[in-house]
Amino acid sequence: AQKVTQAQTEISVVEKEDVTLDCVYETRDTTYYLFWYKQPPSGELVFLIRRNSFDEQNEISGRYSWNFQKSTSSFNFTITASQVVDSAVYFCALSEAGNNFNKFYFGSGTKLNVKP
Amino acid sequence: DAGITQSPRHKVTETGTPVTLRCHQTENHRYMYWYRQDPGHGLRLIHYSYGVKDTDKGEVSDGYSVSRSKTEDFLLTLESATSSQTSVYFCAISESRPHQETQYFGPGTRLLVL
User: Fold this and answer.
1) With an 8 Å Cβ cutoff, is A96 touching chain B?
2) Do A104 and B42 touch (CB under 8 A)?
3) Cβ(A73)–Cβ(A94) below 8 Å
């Protein structure tokens, strides 16, 4: 079973629309970390946010917001008033503190197309 | 931006030839990682290093070896390249253990094995 599931392979929206990218994770650890990364067309991976399992507070950074719900094992990412520059592939990732050191799981990514 | 460079940025090689990719960091971070990115798979860990001369295998280590003789450099070697190793390779670094600290990624290396 996949540790991190991003069910939306590709999403297309028109500029200024709000869009939510879903991320569902699976872990038995009580301590873990969740991440979102952005990969624009240029190819680099840009860190967006890290959240630990003990902090369920939602976070807002400008037009970006994240909703962490342990009850549903989800860590969703919302972009408000999307812009063309938001077009990218977005990856959700999970790191388990109690597991082997080398366990860092990425989802398969969601490609977001924002059209003008 | 974290100071991470990868070389070469693009490479085309033939099946059966050895290939070495280099990751260089200027952050003096202890931990370094090699990932490969393939469509539908996200990123998968190949090998990682937790110090000079200290390395271990990741999820998809078969066909790859690594070396770290200096803090700043982490080399990934494909001993005998195969077409299935055509991919984009990313190096990453972190100051502490990956489940406690954010990993920062290099710009990637596109490798095509013919």
Assistant:
1) yes
2) no
3) no
Which residues of B are less than 8 Å from A95 in CB distance?
98-99
Burial class (CB in 10 A: 0-12, 13-18, 19+), B66: buried
Read off the pLDDT band of B88 (50, 70, 90): very high
Q: Which of B9, B40, B20 is nearest to A5 (CA)?
A: B40
Closest residue in chain B to residue A94, using alpha carbons only: B99
Residues A20-34: tens digit of each pLDDT = 999 999 998 888 889
Q: pLDDT tens digits, residue range A63-106?
A: 999 999 999 999 999 999 999 999 999 999 998 876 555 567 89
Query: Closest chain A residue to B38 measured between Cα atoms?
Result: A108
Q: Are B25 and B6 in contact (CB under 8 A)?
A: no
Nearest CA in chain A to B47: A102
Inter-chain CB proximity A102 and B40 less than 8 Å: no
User: Cα–Cα distance between B2 and A16 in angstroms, integer?
Assistant: 31
Q: Is the pLDDT of residue B108 over 70?
A: yes
Give whole-number Cα distances, A35 to A24, A38, A48, A96, A107, in Å: 12, 10, 7, 12, 10
* Min distance A45 CA to chain B CA atoms (Å): 6
Q: In angstroms, rounded to a whole number, what is the distance separating the alpha carbons of residues A97 and A103?
A: 9
